[in-house]
Amino acid sequence: QEQLVESGGGLVQPGGSLRLSCAASGIIASIYKMGWYRQAPGKQREMVATITGGRPSYSDSAKGRFTISRDSAKNTVYLGMSSLKPEDTAVYYCNMHYQQYYGDDYRSAWGQGTQVTVSS
Q1: What's the pLDDT band for 57 if we cut at 50, 70, 90?
Q2: β-pairing, 114-118 with 10-12?
C-alpha cells in the first residue's frame, strides 16, 4: 500500500526555521500533485502549499515565508519554513494525488502528520 512518511517537525522559537520532508513509497506510476496542509487545534485542515508539475502554489499565510520543492526521482516533497510565527503551530500533513498504475484514476493519500510548534 502506498505510504507517505513525514519528518522534520518539532519545537522552534518565533522567527526560526524548519524543513519538513515527506517521502512516498509503494506502487506509484505517476504523481500529479504533492502538497502540505496543516490543522491547528479546533480549526479545519487548510492548504499551506502544493506543487503540480513543478509549479508551486501557496496560501496567503505561507507566501514569502515558506518554500515547497519536490524531488521527483525520490518521490519526496519538502517544505522549507522560515520566519515562523506562533500561529504556524499545527500538525502538518503531506498529501499526494497519484496513479498507482498508468491509466488508473488518480488517488489521494495522506501522511500521518508531523507536529510543528512555534513557541518561546
Answers
A1: very high
A2: parallel
* Residue 54's pLDDT band (cuts 50, 70, 90): confident
Amino acid at site 83: S
Q: What is the DSSP string of the chain?
A: --EEEEE--EEE-TT--EEEEEEEESS-SEEEEEEEEEE-TTS--EEEEEEETTEEEE-TTTTTTEEEEEEGGGTEEEEEE-S--GGG-EEEEEEEEEESSTTSPPEEEE---EEEEE--
Residues with Cβ < 8 Å from 13, sequence gap 6 or more?
A: 118, 119, 120
Sign of the CA dihedral 110, 33, 30, 24? negative
Percent share of the chain, pLDDT over 70: 100
50 burial type by CB count under 10 A (0-12 exposed, 13-18 middle, 19+ buried)? buried
